[in-house]
Every structure is written in structure tokens, then in C-alpha cells.
Amino acid sequence: MRTRILTAVLAMVTVVAFAQKREIRRAGKAVEKGDYQEAKNHLAEAEPQLSGANQSQQADYYLYKGYALVGSGENVPASDLMAATEAFKKAEELGHEEAPQGITAASNALVNAAIADQNEQNFESAAEKLYASYDLNKQDTLYLYYAAANAINAGNYDNALEYYEELRDLGFSGESVQYTAVNTETGEREVMGSKEQRDLFVKSGDYTDPQDEKAESKRGEIAKNIALIYMEKGESEKAIEAMDAAKRENPDDLSLLQSEADLYYSMGDMQKYREIMEEVVAQDPENPVLLYNLGVSSAQLGERDRAIEYYEKALELDPDMTNARINIAQVILSREQPIVEEMNTLGTSKEDNQRYDELAEERREVYRGAIPHLEGVLERDATNVDAARTMMNIYYQLNETEKAEEMKQKVSELEANQ
């Protein structure tokens, strides 16, 4: 009697195992057809007895589960994509030779979903998906970089710090060559997956103007962001330590010096900022943006002549740098304040009246000194309403009413077209 009972139980297990294998096989066929819901139904039938399946069957189960969850890859819930990545990794652990392809499919779906999240400014979700994609393949460090950037945008500084420090420890630089060409239909320059792909598209006539563009090192940016996160957390000493450590490891990286300068700028230490920026400019003296930034810091330190000198050097290298011209005019006009303050302290004596007239002329000279720079702005940017409005006010102060009225009309036209 006992033997018969045992035989009956064994027979039942055999039937269940056979049914389970059948459901897994059916799930695979459903995936091949693109009927992902049917695949999920078959997998649900097989799941209760999965522990009794052999390793090969379990590997199939997890592979099909991953594909069923990824589906077409469009509008897939984040939870399904995350579950799919786990399923593919399990299939890989069980030795399924097709698991790497599934991991690639899940990664692509995660990245596409992350891009959609970015476009919707759902940065937290984008960061989560990009990190999950990186976690699938640790070689895809660029996804970790973008995960960190999205975490920053989401205000999740703890995660961002973790990601950036991992990038730093990995020695990630982000340096690469991007293969680009112009789409003849849209006129937009696009980045291609490889040189071979780009050259093939250009040969087809669909793209023109192929170019190889080198992406600059991101080490400086990463170090700066680590430091700035520490600043955001109120840990300024750690911020400086992080920057110093990055400089020790990359002493020739000019971007790190720039980032260090930016750090001190954010801390409000303009003197230290300028010291470092002068070192940066010494290594890259033909960079008008660096000279412009030195002009800004000098102006904030109250060093007007030095600020103008830097702005003028920047304009020598880039005559179309409108902001430099505007800032020169602003620095010149800032000399008006102490003149006005002294004028307001004077009384009505003969000496005071004489001094008042002298100061009034000094004030007019300040105005006259700013005009050529504002005219230079309008010559290159006729729609700059701020420059036009400032010139209008200056002409009124100089009692040049006709010019003031002309500029007033110009300001009205510009404002109407905004």
C-alpha cells in the first residue's frame, strides 16, 4: 500500500514538471510572436513549480520573463523594466547564452525610458533607470555619469554624490570621439554610433559634412560637482579636500583648475577665485571666456581698471563678445556713485558750489566714457534693448534731448517686438 502511494506521488510530480516545461516553452513562442501578455500568462502558470525545474528550464523561464516584461520597449512601467533586468541577470547566472542579448534589450529600454523622463523633467526616475542600465553592464560608465547628472537635477544629492564618487574612483574621464554628420533632410548635425555607420550614411547621400569631434574630459566637472555637493551639504572642508585630491591625481588637467576656481567663486572668495583664474589664463592665454571671467571677478572686487583691462583683452580675441562691451560700460558707469554721494554732501557756500560744478562735469565725463561701448553693442546687436535704454538715460542726463528721444523711440520698438 505504501509503495502504491509513493508511486502515485512520483507520477503526479512528473505530470506537473511536464506541464511546467510546456508552459515555459509556450511562453517562449509567445515572446517570439510579440504577444507579451500571453507569455506572462504562461509564465504565471509555470512559476509555482519553478523550483522543481532543472537549470536549463529555469534559465529559459527567466529569459522569457525578461523579454515579456520589456515587451516592445515603449511606455513600459519602470517597475517592469527593473524586474526585467533582474530576470535577465538571473538567466545569465543560470548560464543562458542568450541572456546578454536580453540584458542589452533591457538596457536600451531603460535608457529610452530615461530620455522620456528627462524630457518630462522627471529627473528622479531618469536617474534610477540610468543607474539600473549601468548596473546591468558596468562597462557603460557613461550611463552612470548621466544618472549622476539627473540625480543632481532631481535634488537627490546623496545619490548624486555616490554616483560621482564612483565615477571618480573608476577613473572615468568621458573623453571620446563623436562621429557626426549633417542630416540633409533636417539640416541638423547628428551623432552616429560609430565611424563606420557615419561614413555609410554619408556615402548614401542622406548625410553630409562628416566631422570627428572630441569630447573633452569630464574629470574636472566630476570633481567640481563632488565639491559643490559637499558645499550644498554645508561641508566646505570636504569640498576643498575633494578638489585638492582631484588635482593631485590630475595635475595637468586644466579643467580641474577651472573647476577649483568655480568652487571658490561659489564660496564667495573672489580673491582666491581670481588667483586661480590667472593661473588658468596663463596656461590658455588665447581664451576670451577666461579673460572675460577675470574681468567679472575684478569688477566684483572693486578693481575697475583691471576689470576693463581684462574685458578689452577678451574683445581683442573675440570682438563680438557683447557682454564684455556691456560690462565695460557698467564698470565705467559705476564710477558715478561716489561722485553723486559727494555731491549730496555739499552745502551752498561758494566753495561748495564750485566743487559741485566740478563733480557735475566729472559725472558727465563718466557718461560720455560709457557711450562708445554701448554704441559698439548696438552695432553688433541692434536688438539689445538694455544697451538702448541705458543710452537713452545717458542722453537725457547729458541734456542731449534729440538723441534721447531717438533712442526712446528705438527702445519702444524693441520692447514691442519682444
From TrEMBL:
It holds the Pfam family TPR_1. TPR repeats lie at residues 220-253, 288-321. The keyword Ribonucleoprotein does not apply. The keyword Amino-acid biosynthesis does not apply. This is Tetratricopeptide repeat-containing protein. It comes from Salinimicrobium marinum. Keywords: Repeat, TPR repeat.
